[in-house]
Fold this sequence. Notes:
By secondary structure, this protein is an alpha/beta fold. It has two domains: 2-93 and 278-297, Rossmann fold; 98-270, NAD(P)-binding Rossmann-like Domain (Rossmann fold). 37% of the residues lie in helices and 15% in strands. Helix 1 links the parallel strand 1 and strand 2 (23-26). The longest helix is centred in the C-terminal third of the chain and has 19 residues, at 279-297. The radius of gyration is 21 Å and the shape is elongated.
Amino acid sequence: MKVLLADGLRPKAQELLKQNNIDIVVKFYKLDELISVIAEFDGIIVRSATKVPKEVIDAGVAGKLKVIGRAGTGIDNIDHKYARSIGVPVLNTPGANSASVSELVFAHLWALARFIPAAKVTMGNGEWNKKAYQGIELSGKTLGICGFGKIGQITAKIALDFGMKVIAFDINEVSTDLDVKIVTKEELIKTSDFITLHVPKLEKPFIGKEELGMMKDSSFLVNCARGGVVDEKALLDALNNGVIAGAGIDAWENEPKFNPELAAHPKVSATPHIGASTEEAQDRVGFQIAEKIIAELKK
Length: 299
């Protein structure tokens, strides 16, 4: 059996595949190249860089392709509905990177609350703006969590440990033992001091001009979910016009391209989609997807 690691995979995960008599090829292919070679592989594992649209899937199943794996949680870069409709399993690793993403949320929260991005830039310019950067404490503030899955729940636990009040919204029914109040989307947006997003990409942005207009002008928005979850044009307008106080952005609409004006904005804490980029998370992600691919190919 042969598996393509289109976006690489951790060494321990590669070794696990080899130990189970699976030949691996570690190589990134552009779309047209991938279409021409995919039929040679029994499986493909991707991360976020490689796209697996219908054309790739059709070319694969015309040959040996039996399974598609995503080393991570989101499967937006795979036409997973089509794949599953023709009997090709699409596997991922939900939860493997949850702790890392949650910790990055708080990196952005603290950066915003204490003006760290702006202070870094101005100090680099030789300015000492101590009086301009009087921040706020997270303790006692209300954190609104949109999407209360594994990442949302870990984020809630951390927030509660830091003395924050936590409210949450999810389109699904929520059951939790945490001291979290489940509210409507509108109530969360209107009453939160900080909002963090952990929702999938939808047909239209989860947070657009209307939602931004409902937020308090002292509130902050953090997106460590998916690009397109927030209307970036509306967000830039909201920041420029004082509609909200600031934003933390890890996921961008057109990755790896991004809006440089938004990234450089003094009210923005920006990172290049590194939520899952920790040593620990990548080890877990790689090992889990390798185990799942092995199990599927041995059926």
